[in-house]
Amino acid sequence: MRLVDTSRLRWLHHGLYVSTFVLTALAVLTGMWADPRGSARRSALALAPALVPMAAIPYIGTHTRRHPIGALAAAPFYGLALVASRK
After folding, report:
1. Which among 58, 35, 47, 40 is positioned nearest to 81, based on CA atoms?
2. What span, in angstroms and rounded, lies between the C-alpha atoms of 27 and 41?
3. Nearest CA to 25 among 77, 85, 87, 86?
4. Which long-range contacts (CB under 8 A, 24 or more apart) does 33-42 make?
5. For residues 47 and 17, what is the distance between their CA atoms, to the nearest angstrom?
6. pTM greater than 0.85 (yes/no)
7. Pick from 6, 28, 25: which is nearest to 15 by CA?
8. Mind listing the pLDDT tens digit for each residue in 17-52?
9. Residue 19 falls in which region: left (phi positive, over 0), alpha (psi -120 to 50) or beta
10. How far apart are CA 83 and CA 3, in angstroms?
């Protein structure tokens, strides 16, 4: 969509991606270990599928529409994890 020009801040874009991926993976792992039968596990299981499109982002190209679509494909799982954590 090119609404924001990040060409001069590429390192920031990549740093935020890596941080988001690592923190998501840590949240899934921690949720699985922390409370094996409670809301933390439900949240972790709801968040786990977000790792798939995030892992695919480096391979789907950066200058096509697939890049932001791949990134946005992970967003619903963050919402599901939030809802699961409140139950």
Report:
1. 47
2. 10
3. 77
4. 39/84, 39/85, 39/86, 39/87, 40/85, 42/84, 42/85, 42/87
5. 16
6. no
7. 6
8. 999 999 999 999 999 888 777 888 999 999 999 999
9. alpha
10. 30
Q: What is 63-84 written as a DSSP string?
A: SSTHHHHHHHTTHHHHHHHHHH
The mean pLDDT value of the chain amounts to 87
Residues in the chain: 87
Cβ partners under 8 Å of residue 40, min gap 6: 30, 31, 34, 85
Q: Which two tokens stand for residue 5?
A: 């020009």
